Amino acid sequence: MKKTSLLLAVAALLSSSALSVLSVNADDTTPAGKTSVAEFNVEAGNLELVQAPDMLFNKVDFGNLVGEGNATTKYASKEVNKKGTGQDSLEVHDFRGTDANWKVSARVSSFTNGLSTLNGTITFNGQAISKDDNIIATSTDNASEHYIYKRTPDSETTTLELAKKTSGIKSGQYDADITWTLSDTASGNTAAEQ
Q: Which of 132, 53, 131 lies closest to 92 in space, CA to CA?
């Protein structure tokens, strides 16, 4: 009986030691796991002048062209603007993925009607478009529009001012070419011209 009790005591002692080792081991271990990687590449695109606006202005009275000072007229609504390319906005996309700066400059030729010419200055986006290249927009104008920039002329802020002329004016339709140039200002390269 003593042997049985001794065996039972040893067995009890061994099982409590084993349980305590098991519980220590279970508490000290970290769950097994692995970390993997997910990745993708962004493919660079282009710097592009997507569209440049046609600008149709309201009629000008002949008397205003020969009177005192310059004649000013406002942009006609885009519903009336049927001539030209049909584009109604200045739109630039910068999908290069470099955050390099860009600028758009513009110039306007003389307005012609046969042999009759008139010089004018267009105000668009708060900037003057004249016979000289003028900067109209830059990537730094509004940080939220660096990648997609869009401005549409409107009848309140887009105007045409025509220089007074004392002779050689004909009634009728006058047209001028507006040349828009998009440049990468970091490199000085011209990206597009319309």
A: 53
